[in-house]
Amino acid sequence: MLDKLRRDPFYRQIFKLMLPMMLQNLLNAAVNSVDVVMLNFVGESAIAAVSLAAQYANVLFMVFYGLGTGATMLCAQYFGKGDLRAVETVQGIALRFSMGIASLFALAALAVPEFMMQVFTSDPQLIALGADYLRILSISYLCWGIIEVYLSVLRSVGRVAIGTVLNTIAVLLNVLLNAVFIFGLFGAPKLGIVGVAIATSISRVIELALCFLVSHRSTSIKLKFSMLFVRNKLLFADFVRLSLPALANDVVWGVGFSMYSVILGHLSAEAVAANSFAIVVRNLGSVLCFGQANAGGILLGQLIGENKLHEAKTAAKRVVKLTVVGGILGGLVILAIRPLVLQYADLSATAMGYLSAMLLINSYYIFGGAINTTLIAGVFRAGGDSRFGLICDIVDMWVYAVPLGFLAAFVFKLPVVWVYFLLCTDEFVKWPWVFKHYRSGKWLKNITREGLFEEPAPKAP
Q1: CA–CA distances in Å: residue 57 to residues 43, 85, 145, 405, 440
Q2: Closest C-alpha among 327, 404, 420 to residue 372
């Protein structure tokens, strides 16, 4: 079986794209794990405050992920077509959006961090701790918006290793600086939760500097602010039509998922602390799933851009089969990690009970998310279909899951674990509509254009 996979050109291509992205996702999950582990020595309140404040970073990540995957929809197909000028123009359009949104988040985190924390909790101690964290983290938001778009465009043209290397450097630096500022190593002051924010901001600044260095030496896609001012009405219209629904989809999902933390945050600090550990473990289990979704989307997009629609449809079936395996493996990873987390987490007895149940729930919940992520964010977007996911998640998150969570928590006053269980049914509720849309084949479209940069013919006198 393994020998057959190695010989198959499709699987060789997808693993070549997938493995660096898996490592990148693993590193991102690992740095979040390190934050929680190190803050474990500071206190439960520090863990809870960072977990709540980080929800804004989660939403912002969804914004950047949506813009990045939206840009990838166009860039992968135009790269398959061989039009690098269109790729760079799309990158400039995406940067205009990402830098604008990042500036708004940074300004809010700098000016009104207390208000931002009050959305998630009414605990004065958590508000004060989280506000200090957000104020310093505002610097990293500006850098992050540029980094994510540039690396997404590089991934869309098959240059996935660059992002992995840069993320590796940034993550290792972040971990080192976390230790320095949390524990006061090498003569530095012990800054606790503020130290985490300083470490993250410094590592983002350095990662952005490395992006410019890579761009300077690149022979293909460059990070040039001059592309912000390139105007192309057709590409801009396509970006708005195709990419903004993807962005809205990820924001709708990200904000909806953050509402789960709002619900838990108003139940108890123990529930928040337990959920912060559960999120870290779920992210580790999701590494393979997100790698498959991203790699599959890029490969399918390039095939569609070459107008190989039949081959793309066959490739999509293979990607889905891989995702089933990835989802099962992700659940097993969570079950394998669970005893270690329960052994070393320094939480109260109540929080430990919550955490034990949350990890069991996530061991199967991850499978539902793996299938939906691959189809909605990978397969459908590769074919230029971003609207289906937006409509699907609006209904699933805001008509079903979030109202159900509020009713369970504050009307029926169910126990924390039951509230969490009900929230984690959202991925499975949308399966029937997702599979129906996949089988219909309506998502499979070549969205590239001809003559994008041709001068219009002069009018006859």
Answers
A1: 21, 32, 11, 22, 36
A2: 327
The pLDDT value given to residue 460? 45
**Residue 86 maps to a domain:** yes
Backbone angles phi, psi at 327, to 5 degrees: -65, -40
Residue 449 lies in a domain: no
**pLDDT of amino acid 392:** 94
Q: Which long-range contacts (CB under 8 A, 24 or more apart) does 432-436 make?
A: 433/392, 434/371, 434/372, 434/375, 434/376, 434/392, 435/375
Q: Helices H, strands E: what count in the chain?
A: 20, 0
Query: In the chain, which stretches have pLDDT less than 70?
Result: 1-7, 28-37, 40-41, 218-219, 454-461
Number of structural domains found in the chain: 1
Question: What SS3 class is residue 461?
Answer: coil
Beta strands in 118-215 (DSSP E): none
Phi, psi angle pair for 453, to nearest 5°: -115, 15
Q: What DSSP assignment string belongs to 195-242?
A: HHHHHHHHHHHHHHHHHHHHHHH-SS----GGGGG---HHHHHHIIII
pLDDT given at position 56: 83
Residues 99/243, Cβ–Cβ less than 8 Å: no
Q: Is residue 460 part of a domain?
A: no
For residues 204 and 246, give the distance between their C-alpha atoms in angstroms, rounded to a whole number: 25
Task: Domain of residue 286: give its range.
Answer: 8-440
The type of residue at 177 is L
Calpha distance 108→87 (Å, rounded): 32
CB 207 within 8 A of CB 145: no
pTM, rounded to two decimals: 0.77
The tokens describing 228, both together, are 């912000």
What does the pLDDT look like over 199-222, one tens digit per residue? 889 999 999 999 999 888 866 788
Q: What is the pLDDT of residue 104?
A: 93
Q: Is residue 126 part of a domain?
A: yes
CB of 307 within 8 A of CB of 2? Answer: no
**pLDDT score for 454:** 64
Q: Which amino acid is at 285?
A: G
